[in-house]
């Protein structure tokens, strides 16, 4: 035990340089993983939003066709604005097996994340009576 007046060397309290560097390395690794996870979560959220809006566009198109009189087999296309974005849709109407229903495939395309071209975001199929 050291007394206040003794000449024995005192051990200083605190962290050594090596301990501080190891702690900083651990914190840097943890922050890097956190930043990567946050970026992936943002991308996933954006893709889910894209798919949801595209399915709403397709559902709206099917609802419009259900109100239309005299559907005929064929292909049509158009544009819709929803959620602050422009969407292109293509509708393929064909006879369903059995001949009592129309099969309607609605393909919705929007601008892909980070790309300038339109990419298919969703394909939705519905059936309506003939």
Outline the structure in words.
- With 130 residues, the protein is of the alpha+beta class.
- It has a single domain, classed as Pantoate--beta-alanine Ligase, Chain: A,domain 2 (2-Layer Sandwich), CATH 3.30.1300.30.
- The protein is built from one helix and four strands.
- The chain has one helix at 17-67; strands spanning 74-82, 85-95, 101-111, 118-129.
- A four-stranded antiparallel β-sheet has the order 1-2-3-4, with helices on one face.
- A hairpin with a 6-residue loop joins strand 3 and strand 4.
- The longest helix is centred in the N-terminal third of the chain and has 51 residues, at 17-67.
- The N and C termini lie far apart (99 Å).
In terms of topology, how is this protein built?
Elements: H1 17-67, E1 74-82, E2 85-95, E3 101-111, E4 118-129
Antiparallel strand pairs: 1-2, 2-3, 3-4
Task: Give a short overview.
39% of the residues lie in helices and 33% in strands.
* CATH fold-level topology: Pantoate--beta-alanine Ligase, Chain: A,domain 2
CATH superfamily: GSPII I/J protein-like
Which structural class do the helices and strands define?
A: alpha+beta
Task: Quote the distance from N terminus to C terminus.
Answer: 99 Å
Strand order of the largest sheet: 1-2-3-4
Which of globular, elongated, flat, extended, rod-shaped describes the shape? rod-shaped
């Amino acid at each position: 035990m050291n007394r206040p007046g003794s000449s024995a060397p005192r051990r200083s309290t605190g962290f050594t340089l090596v301990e501080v560097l190891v702690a900083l390395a651990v914190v840097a690794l943890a922050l890097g993983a956190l930043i990567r996870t946050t970026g992936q979560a943002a991308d996933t959220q954006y893709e889910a939003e894209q798919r949801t809006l595209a399915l709403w566009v397709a559902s709206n198109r099917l609802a419009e066709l259900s109100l239309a009189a005299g559907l005929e087999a064929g292909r049509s296309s158009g544009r819709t604005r929803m959620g602050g974005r422009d969407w292109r849709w293509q509708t393929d109407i064909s006879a369903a097996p059995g001949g009592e229903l129309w099969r309607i495939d609605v393909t919705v395309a929007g601008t892909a994340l980070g790309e300038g071209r339109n990419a298919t975001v969703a394909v939705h199929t519905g059936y309506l009576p003939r």
